[in-house]
Amino acid sequence: xxxxxxxxxxxxxxxxxxxxxxxxxxxxxxxxxxxxxxxxxxxxxxxxxxxxxxxxxxxxxxxxxxxxxxxxxxxxxxxxxxxxxxxxxxxxxxxxxxxxxxxxxxxxxxxxxxxxxxxxxxxxxxxxxxxxxxxxxxxxxxxxxxxxxxxxxxxxxxxxxxxxxxxxxxxxxxxxxxxxxxxxxxxxxxxxxxxxxxxxxxxxxxxxxxxxxxxxxxxxxxxxxxxxxxxxxxxxxxxxxxxxxxxxxxxxxxxxxxxxxxxxxxxxxxxxxxxxxxxxxxxxxxxxxxxxxxxxxxxxxxxxxxxxxxxxxxxxxxxxxxxxxxxxxxxxxxxxxxxxxxxxxxxxxxxxxxxxxxxxxxxxxxxxxxxxxxxxxxxxxxxxxxxxxxxxxxxxxxxxxxxxxxxxxxxxxxxxxxxxxxxxxxxxxxxxxx
Length: 434
Hints:
Blueprint: E1 2-8, E2 11-29, E3 38-57, E4 65-88, E5 91-115, E6 120-142, E7 162-184, E8 187-198, E9 201-202, E10 213-214, E11 217-230, E12 235-254, E13 260-281, E14 284-299, E15 301-303, E16 313-315, E17 327-339, E18 343-354, E19 357-358, E20 365-367, E21 370-381, E22 386-393, E23 401-406, E24 416-420, E25 425-432
């Protein structure tokens, strides 16, 4: 990432340039047997670049007006090859989906803040986004070498080999407004309303053309909050109440064959978030956060993978969103211990709590709640450009789920495809500043 800023009188020109290149490979044994019956591999590569140019006023905080305007461009290209080996009666074959997608996104935005009175300020903004995706997929199947054919090549290609293409452009004008009230010198209250937008997309591995397409996601977020600093700014608190209304919320789900895909649902989420930072002593800082969220489907019909009958169709309307806990908390202890004139030791302990999560199939339990701890000790010599830290992650070696999904044609509250966390790990970091 490259950031630049040029000051020109009453405004600044800001440039933010970024580039990212990523490659990954994965293999999963989804046959769950001693012999090799079924597994899937995937190879992915992508690169992306973004450029933002922004003009913004550099007035003092007491100025009556302030403003920001700018342009944004994003481009990404990605390739993915997913192969499924299946040697389960009656199927015996390898199915491959080669996918390529190009995304180009343009945006123009502006924001103006106006001081209405001594303690009141209003900020309004608009963002126009236009995004185009071009998608191509090639699906084909081959027999497994050396294994006699006992039935169809694959359950994934009902109409044989194919190549399909799709392209679509989505655009959206997203407004926002914030009203602030300075209740005291270091206490600010606010109310905001903002609209968010995420473009739609295409299903990665359809059983046959045409390519499936899912709708863009739209959300309107309402928020009330208080930010304050107390006791000579040794105590800082942020409290926010929010309500989010989603149309076509994009969800990861699974198709009839148990392959991951994207579906959409109408939903809403409400809750409260609290963040606190306290300078207990000159060397001891305590930081913590707590959130309670009630995410609920307004309308969503889910289908258990592997089935198409009504007995395995679930009306999730009014139930909690899958994969989201209702309670989260974190607590960090930070103690800085000076060692004479040589430097200082910094001790940190982080505690994290996450509540249980549910599936999208009848809202059965997916993962229990968990608590984990991380610790770090850092030594930094005085007036030095380097520091060294020793750390331990998952101090108590807690085991918990961090993702996954149910297996096709199995009970979703008994058999799971679970991605678990990393075990206890430790290491040393050495950092130089130039």
